[in-house]
């Protein structure tokens, strides 16, 4: 059985790396030691009026120093509270949660869209194969340095200010790229388009999904997604994003 | 120091239980909580056949609480009997199965199916605000409450807890109706129907439009209803609604609850139930309370 821990993590470093996007390094007791790329942690607000933990994907894992990096966008009051924390502050976290990406030795696309880019960093570090990172941004780039030296990098921006004008699939087509496996995380319309692209081209495809969560550990059944087969846990066509996911085989889920 | 309480002949080692729908059947939380230390585990609602539940988003956070419209997704009684009961039997805690249905026959079918199972009590959910049939349709009408309680009691071998809705004009009318129907215990409150609108997307925050509000935001309403009901009926009450700390649990007990259920707090703090069990013991020690039963309904 997967091991999960609730800890008081200490913030080692926090900085705003792009407008409204923050990078936080956390010192953990056990979570970093057990974490895998594609998994997430739940972070708790200090303000008790905000009860639910915020699920945030793991960007980097430092097993040697037992530290984790998360990169998140300020989307509401909870993430705003996190963005105000500084070095030495303590935050309660639970993790590692979810299943993570399978590490396969196949020529790969690592596709990240917006705030779906961070989990691709640790995946790129741990995957031992030919890697092509395809990153989609609205306008401003972030986490570019982190991917350097890990493989070929391609960028798409919605406004065309950098790389291909358009989305990640436009970047793949413009550069005439191909791969045997796709790992992707990003907004649902992007994942939907990637799933279609993968099915049309017969490419193995793994998607990391997002859904509103309450418990984050599989008990509340809030964060389900429609699945093709009856799920072995729920016995209906619903899988839990927090538990069976967030990473699913593309053909398993309906988007 | 005695923390044992008695619910219709079933002795709980302490009054702390889990609230249905917030704890699964305990497996997910067993990585954080020693299930042996709980008075009882109350399982997520189970129906005669699997239920899909509602579309997502199913939850939204609100100030001091949350709204959910999960819609009683469950794998059905067959899977529950094969998988969840054997899991829970490994622990030294009481097992209370929450039963949901669309019709009286549905409820009775599940109750009959559980008659020979090693289950300590049944909690009949006639108060879910998120399903069209069953659920709250029963819970807002005293005649319907009395009738379904009588019917379920015919099939039940275990003591029956009727779980009441707060979405009524007078909770004591509903409580008396359940008592008249033969209920052994009452549990209250279920969630309060609420709504949240996302002003940025200009749409409802949960797909079902309305959902059940839970969490600390509803605690004072729950304490009031437990108190009123305790004055109106003779059967024991399980108090729930926004219990997050030992103090919240003690408030319920002083208001008249024999036991308490912890719900939404599990999401905020997976160890909430354990902290509440310890907190009650500390309170008893510090205040020289030898028997928790002295506290039940002590504030009048």
Low-confidence stretches of chain B are none
Shape of chain A: globular
Give the radius of gyration of chain A.
Answer: 18 Å
List the strand order in the largest sheet of chain A: 10-9-8-7-11-12-15
SSE order of chain A, one letter for each helix or strand: EEHEEEHEEHEHEEHEHEEEE
What is the chain-wise order of helices and strands of chain B? EEEEEEHEHEHHEHEEEEEHEHEHH
Q: Could you tell me how far the N terminus lies from the C terminus of chain A, measured between alpha carbons in angstroms?
A: 28 Å
Strand content of chain B: 15-25%
What's the rounded overall pLDDT mean of chain B? 96
Please report the total strand number of chain B as a whole number. Answer: 16
Per DSSP, the total helix count of chain A is 6
Low-pLDDT sequence parts of chain A: none
Class of secondary structure makeup of chain B: alpha/beta
**What summary fits the major beta sheet of chain A?**
7 strands, mixed
Strand order of the largest sheet of chain B: 3-16-15-10-9-8-7-4
What is the overall shape of chain B?
A: globular
Counting helices, strands and paired strands, the structural category of chain A is alpha/beta
Give the % helix of chain B: 25-40%
| Biggest interface, residues from each chain | A-B, 35 and 40 residues
**Ends apart, CA distance between termini of chain B:** 24 Å
In terms of DSSP E residues, the strand content of chain A is: 25-35%
